[in-house]
Write a structure and sequence with these properties.
With 242 residues, the protein is mainly beta. It is built from four helices and eight strands. An eight-stranded antiparallel β-barrel has the order 1-2-3-4-5-6-7-8. A hairpin with a 4-residue loop joins strand 6 and strand 7 (169-179).
Length: 242
Amino acid sequence: MPAPRPLRLVFAPLLALSLSTVPASAGELAAELGAGYFDLSASKSADAVFGSSGGFTWGGAARYSFKPGFFVSAGARTFSKEGERVFVAGPAGLVQRVGHPLSIRITPVYLTAGYRLREGRLVVPYAGIGGSLTSFSEESSVAGRSYDESRTKAGFHVVGGAEVGRGRFRFGAEVGWSTVPDAVGVGGVSAVYNESDIGGWSVMGKLVVAFGGRKGPEDVEDDALEIETPGENRPEDDPDEG
């Protein structure tokens, strides 16, 4: 299955960024590729239709870090599940499967602002907050006839994690929580369970490719040692010698 259009719109700029360089004094530009697990807030509806509320998610982002540690990032992720339509008479009722295939895809395009602690160290913890525009699409088939539905809703998220490494290639781990209210719940099983939020919890592992950026504290100290003290005469420049 080809990548969703929002992800293609994000990865194309990331490819262009990978071909550029950024002066060290201007901050740090980085591209991130992540994969992990996402668990829907609408867990009862998801359990009924798909058999579980979580699954694999992946995506990418571009991040720019300012001095002394503020950063902004923009990216997208995608999450999909497949199941079948069900009938539920009430919140405590028995789930009855009706045999019609159903699949969903959730793709948030997000903007995050935050702060990175201990910038330049081997391990850099960070936290951020931001907003998103989340695309929700649903496809189903009934008696050989296809039904497609899609909508886009605004959302909110918070993230926290850590990045390990000082070189161009680094690794990271991130935990996030998001909310996208009023995206579902008008009809169907989500209305029965009174669930309307398609946000949730996520745990991600990340590969980070950095371009430019500031030097670490050890590098700065090494550079300072190499600077010659102004006015200090070297032995070969002493006028009394020779």
